[in-house]
Amino acid sequence: TPTAPECTSSRPRRSRRGMNHPGAVGVSVTTRPVLFAVARTLRGRDSRAFASTPARLLQSRGHLIVGARARRLATGPSMFLSRFTKNSATDVDAPPREMDAAPSVLGLADRADHSWTRHLNPDPDTDANAPNRKSRQVKSGHYVRVDPTPLRKPETVIYSPDMLKRLGIDEADVKAPNGERFARFFSGDKSAVPGMDTWATPYALSIMGQRQVSNCPFGTGNGYGDGRAVSVGEVLGPDGARWEMQLKGGGPTPFCRGADGRAVLRSSIREFLASEAMHALGVDTTRALSLVVSRGGDVARRPWYDPGADKDASAESISMDDPRLARYPDDVKRQIIRQFANQKRDPDVMIVETCAITTRVAPSFTRIGHVDLFGRRAQRAGEGTAQMDELRKMVRHAIFREFPEILEERAGDEDDGDGDVTPEQVAAFLVSSGLAIADLVCGWLRVGFCQGNFNADNCLVGGRTMDYGPFGWMDAYDPLFAKWTGSGEHFAFMNQPGAGLANFAVLAASCAPLLEGGEDEAQAIVERIQGEMESKVADVWRVKLGLRESQRAAAAKIFDYKLEPLMRESNVDYTLVFRQLAECLKLPDEVSDDDLLEPLAPAFYDSPNAFYDEDTRAKWCDFVRAWRDEVDGTESTIEAMNAVNPAYVLREWMLVEAYTAAKERDDFSVTRELFELTRTPYELGSETMQEKYYRRAPDRALKAGGTAFMS
User: Fold this and answer.
1) What angle do CA 563, 567, 570 make, to 5 degrees?
2) Distance in angstroms (rounded) separating the CA atoms of residues 62 and 73
3) Lowest model confidence (mean pLDDT) among 41-55, 99-113, 132-146
4) In 214-262, at which residue ranges do the beta strands (DSSP E only) sit?
5) CA dihedral (528, 529, 535, 538) positive or negative
6) Alpha helices in 200-349, H assignment, sequence order
7) What is the pTM assigned to this prediction?
8) How do residues 561-610 score in pLDDT, each as one tens digit?
9) Mind spelling out the 3-state secondary structure of 526-586?
10) Residues acting as catalytic residues
């Protein structure tokens, strides 16, 4: 394992109930505002990430402004280095299988431990509304028992060997001719594995700290929740780790809001590959077990993008010599051209797509939205009410699932969920959750990922990436990058720390009734987490630049005043520029400007190509020389940089190639190739893989609907 720059932990180690993940390690530095400003010449105003929250929890701190001299996200390198000591596909040993044993998938029922349905309250109107597949109000209870709707003629087209082992399922029971039962169960046929509970859950929506009800079809907030996700059980794996399994696209539930509850092949391929790619990158995430497709004619109509419209949209263009740009300097002209070329639009056609289901797996899917819902109800009802009891139960269960050390319980303990939770335990839960969320967004910035729709209902209390919908890994660097047409600036790449803090403030406000100091204590915890977020933000760039912990001030100066403005001006590939920087350390001390910059040439996009602009080259030379003066150019530093700056991320154009081949030719070879590629994202791999994938995005991918942006 390469030696990384040192980091000092600021976060207590937390149990993952046996989950083989080393956890994120942060650092404590002097708190500075998290700042990042977008060029006013392009936007006309500063970009602001509003961290407004319920119960005025952030009023004393004001906005979390993302403005000009940034101190951004960080995770300590131990999180993403220690996990490479074992091969992710083989680091859990499966028990040996006896020749005449029953299919191992049946063993899930033997190891089932459905803590959600054991600890928490059922919806009292479940039986009266059976089978609970129509939109309705759910006014109380933490879950609704609902059976998933099976796909017809299911076929497993790809699976994660690592997750099979963690769940105790033999790989032989997934492949033909033995895989029928597996495909049936993980496509919604509950009868394939008798003894498993299935359920869907209600939760609330808050956007940037503002509680919403308008999304609910009833205008009350009682109709929002798992609209197409159905949990199909919790099990203890062979090593005692707890895993919850959830079907994405399992059919309608009471929270479907009139939709069909289905997922299609395109979105399912994206979710499967992205979940496993994120895990391999060392960023905490829900995992993907399998992708099952319908061979029986299950289809759904979805809005999408007409390729012909891309041609029409690109017909009008502007160039560097456009007279309308004459008054701007060249760096601003380039930004305006990129902004014009990257204009987003909504889908323009309806297409018919095959239905599929990705089974996602995690120690818990407890969302901030779950606590938010019961916090709202409890605050309206007051102390001593059933609503307050439901909030207390929800928070205690969240602690049990994500931070059991706070309750001093083990994964296998029998527990009915009726135990009390103290104010001290609630406070410890909030701190642990806040640090986990900070580490999560740190990881996203490190690998160039934008979640795109980071509402509180898409934020797990355990700090784990989930809901791979309008996500994207960034190609050309843009601080306001986001794939989703509805992301706005508040969910953009560099504003994700503010969104994460706003989500956490919702959690703190929801838990305030359970704290000894109420809202004042909740606000103090939010302020503490804001400080932790800012110091972690500041440290990510130091780690990516290969600088030591003692060089935090130098790292901030180099990134904020040299590298970040250059990346913004130069149309440079985010992943490649950081990866190729390590190559600059291999050059001799006395090197010409041309030779100094040659390793970075692959990172520059061609249109418009700033790399050969004299002024731009001079700025890049100034940055590289200043950086080389600070960094230790030893082999261990190069190895450390290459261990935190991936060679491969799951770019959208790669995903488009995969799901297009699957949809049009029933060809899953590209899907499988990308799965293998992204299992070792820090290794360059074969020359063939480098030629295909170690490259900038094709020009069309930076503009095409469904690739450059989506709804």
Assistant:
1) 130
2) 19
3) 41-55
4) 229-236, 242-248
5) negative
6) 265-281, 307-315, 330-341
7) 0.84
8) 999 999 998 889 999 999 999 999 999 999 999 999 999 999 998 755 65
9) HHHHHHHHHHHHHHHHHHHCCCCHHHHHHHHHHHHHHHHHHHHHHCEEHHHHHHHHHHHCC
10) 457
